[in-house]
Amino acid sequence: MQMRCYRCGWSFALRKDEIAFALRALEESGGNHYDAHCPRCKHANPVSIEQLRRAAPRPPTPPAPAPPEGEEPT
Ligand SMILES: [Zn+2]
Predict the structure, then answer these.
(1) What are the start-end ranges of the H helices in 1-74?
(2) Distance, CA 47 to ligand 1 centroid (Å)?
(3) Where exactly are the structural domains of the chain?
């Protein structure tokens, strides 16, 4: 997930494992944003839990089951 620092304007990427870790920590603590630290100036940039969910490799809820497939006529 691509981020831009609010303070210095530096662009940096949040890794998928960092996103997944942040989401889990927020869900456990009941928080609504994660502080992504800029690698350049160390400023904490708030990322909302919604943004994290959209960027996460997997949604926190299981996917809907696939509809049953019709059997092929023999
Ligand atoms: Zn910065």
Answers:
(1) 16-29, 49-55
(2) 14
(3) 2-55
